[in-house]
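[09:14] KT: can someone run the structure on this one? pasting the chain below
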Amino acid sequence: MSKPVEPTPLMRQYLAIKEKYPGALLLFRVGDFYETFLEDAVTTSKVLDIALTKRANGSAASVELAGFPHHSLDLYLPKLVKAGYRVAICDQLEDPKQAKGIVQRGVTELVTPGLSFHEAVLDKRANNYLASIFFDKTLLGMAFLDLSTGEFFVAQGAADYMQKVLHHLGPVEVVFSKKQQTAWNDFAQGVAHTYALDEWVFQFDYAYGLLNSHFGTHSLKGFGIADYTAAIVAAGVVLHYLSETEHKAIQHIRSIARLEEHHYIWLDQFTVKALELLVPQQVGGTPLIEILDRTVTPMGARLLKKWLLFPLKKVKPIQERLNIVEYLVQDTPLATLLVGYLQQIGDLERLIAKVASSRVNPREMVALKRALEQVQAVQTALQAVKCPLLQKLHAQLHGCAALVERIRHTLQDDPPISFHQGGLIRPHVDEQLDGFHKIIYEGKDYLVQLQQQESKRTNIPSLKVSYNRVFGYYLEVPNAHKNKVPADWMRKQTLAGAERYITQALKQYEEQILHAGEAAQLLEQQLYQALVAEAVEFIPQIQENAKYVAQLDCYLSFAKQAAEHQYSKPMIDDGTLLNLKGSRHPVIEQRLPIDKTYMPNDICLDPSAQQIIVITGPNMAGKSALLRQVALTVLMAQMGSFVPAASAHIGVVDKIFTRVGASDNLAQGESTFMMEMTETASIMHNLSDRSLVLMDEIGRGTSTYDGISIAWALVEYLHNHPQYRAKTLFATHYHELNELAKELPRVKNFNVAVQEIDRKILFLHKLVAGGSEHSFGIHVAQMAGMPAIIVERARAVLAHLSQVGGKMHAKVEPLPTAEYQLKLFAPSEAGSNLIALLEAIDIDTLAPVEALVKLNDLKNMVKSFKD
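[09:31] RB: done, structure tokens below
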């Protein structure tokens, strides 16, 4: 029986460290390389597309190996993290030259999708949230942390609210209890990366203690979360996870806030998707964020996205935002000046987070200085403004003049990217360093003097002073003059035509210059680390600057958009009226061809008189766009933006619901109609008095009778609701719903006008009072390029069905079968009868439901002909 192979000391060390980090890829520093072994090597080689080799591991054994140079970490690490892997970075903790035996190593960072400072992993214009979730008995608690910025907040509530929050914020990683795996599976799907922790971590007392310890407090009341017990557990889990992943330098996480449900408009995930706020539903489409986002800083872009997903409900803060935007629209020179300053600030929020975690490099420190100089310029520009809200913003900014001056005085204007390279500290910062630099940089002068001195003393005119790595500095004497070499010179090498010597003076100089280089590098590192430590003291002020610069960036973005596209300032109040004059769709109007203009429309919804508008009209007329533009206008207004309308009077909306477009969930076995009914049911259960409801073609996913019945019942329910009069736009192709306006006083009929000319239609995209009696489906088919024979056949069938119709229960006369094959002679008797019957149909008086019924009877008649 063979004896088990004993692993090498290096592999024993690797396996011991690997055991502490199960489930993570271990990047193991060996000399100038990061190596991976065994299964990690196989995975790493596939993900990074690098060679997989083998390494000796004791007698008659080998292990898989894959690695890359340590300086390529920033290139390869993001690929591993984006592929969903947790990566433990294991570094050498001592100088290999000083090590006795195997070099001491340890994990210095565990990078996960939700915990990273690496720019190649992060999206500059989006937050990178880690989330934790705790399922309590009746409530759910969640905590969100962006480690790259220090933003930390919690939310607590019922499952539907928490699902909305999770969907809006889109964390890239979620941690939960192993014991609650089933609860998580039932709660959410589609989160890219998750990690389950041991149950004991999810204890209230443990979490409460961690939070107080981190913030240096005795209570969480000051943060306003003391009663959020489930959320506190989730927040404690986040801090535990940071410790477990070796993220201990987290001074930039200075506070924790709560996300208040009652502060923001309710937008469920169906609405966010249907309104295309962040992602277009069609390839090549344009989401609203792409139109609105004119920000010039990463902080501003991240904040604008939050404002879009969490529009305000309270009148005063909305009006304050609008007033600032109005001032900036009117003062174009100021807005232009401010944008110029902001463009040079960069990502101040993530820069200071790097300072806190000691990951900031010298060039980033110089970038921090430049950013703060621009903040000072913004302060100066806002000093004389006459807008009280901008004056308040001016007072909230911090110039951090002491830090700016300290960085300017200490660092070179263009330092190397790494503080290990040297050459980053300015002259006259430290006398000792200046002395070292004098030895290093003035060495050539010393060598020239030495060469001249020795040449004169020895009378050797061709004497040279040179350097190589073997001997260091040496004197080279041609053979013709070797008899003149003094006795105190020591010969080191004989060449074909010369000999090389060293002297005591040269050796002393060599030791001095080598010592000066090492000492200067060490001293520069110490001076740089002291500078970073000073910058840490300014974390609170710089984070405040980032916060207010982001807000200003959003206001300037709104102002630029408003000025360029003639947006108007909406009037926002606590009333219930929604009155838009000359309303336009913000996305469509900017994507129209240059020779076309968007047709504006007026929309008025008033719960006391015109609560529900039933909109009819043909497909392609613009009903869906009209619904969406009303919702987008309300959203933009309650974000604090001007709106694409001639005027807008908006009583604050607290919930926006949409049921627009098909949304099959075939992977879950749900049809279009099932999804439609599920989403509609959710709307009906969550109505409020200030809700805005947009319903498009409800019931089209089932039979005609069922569809009409459901749509009819929904309008009645919304009108007759015992508590709430939700403002509603109801687009439909069921013209029968026009009858509701005769029975329900707050239901009004409108249609999107079209004009028919020579059996062709012209879409006018204009909303007019009254219901439409036609769907113009055949016209649309013709416009879509349907073969002419099919279009003509459809006209004939419709004409026949119109003739025999009039009521839903009318009996349909037998209809001859169609003959699609061309005849050389006269048509058959059956064909003649068919033509006669079809020509007798009056399609102008035929209702769509009657057409469908008659078409069904026609199908049966065709079948009888075949039989």
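[09:33] KT: thanks! The chain is about 45% helix and 20% strand.
[09:34] RB: yep, looked fine to me
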